[in-house]
Amino acid sequence: MTKTKIEWADRVWNPVTGCTKVSEGCRNCYAERLAKRFWGERKFAEVRCYEERLNEPLHWKEPQRVFVNSMSDLFHPDVHDGFIYGAFMRMAKATQHTYIILTKRPQRMAQWFAKNESFWDLPNVWIGVSVENQQAADERIPILILIPAVVRFVSCEPLLGPVDLSLSGTIPYSAPYSTFGNELDWVIVGGESGPNARPMHPDWARNLRDQCSMAHVPFFFKQWGEYVVPFDGERACRVCGCTENYACVDDSGETCFWVEQDLCSQCIGKDRPAERAVKYARVGKRQAGRLLDGQEWLEYPNGHH
Q: In angstroms, how far is CA 111 from the centroid of its own chain?
């Protein structure tokens, strides 16, 4: 079955399966969880390419938004250049579809495109990088914006920290947010889901939404993940007892950061950023939903729906 519940896609196309971890955003990989359920003894780190799957999009008559390799990374080092070429040949042929390619390996992607100029600017191929925090943004976005593509995008999922898109490495640090609008065409934001999910601070999502608004870049809020911030009720940190307005400030002036276990940052080793404190409730992905400040944000790149 290739239909998908991924909010911004209609189908997935997996000519490659299996992957290996490259950064913090990979820690609780959803694809690895799925693989453990269905692959038996096969390890998720074993990357396999399937020639017989390359023609699948040619058989889908109705136009679809196709997420390429939801169970892998097309630019994984174990996927040889010729196989990637074959995938792009099918994308260039089945033009009724829009193909959404997401990678954590933009260096490999840039190298491949440099050797395959015939696939520059395919009108139905969107190219993106995963960005879970500022470090990933600084490493990956500068490479992405140098790759010729009709749509370049960033997927901040799972969002594990604040991200300032104007600090991409090629834009001066003093530049206003609006400058990144010349380079990026779409930003997706989502929290982490699954049994070991980490909560997403609502201000991280709001800040990215506001950056996109200022830069006139479409913003898509995919999900909160497992956690929401309750708007009623009171709880106290079970160690230090602080309760003031969902937050407190410790002796050093650092704001407490509430987590599921009812511990503030003062009592978990101060390993959280000093930012507005919130209390999280773990309610599950379905109940947490996708409303950001009371509304859905389902914007797509200009001219696309």
A: 22
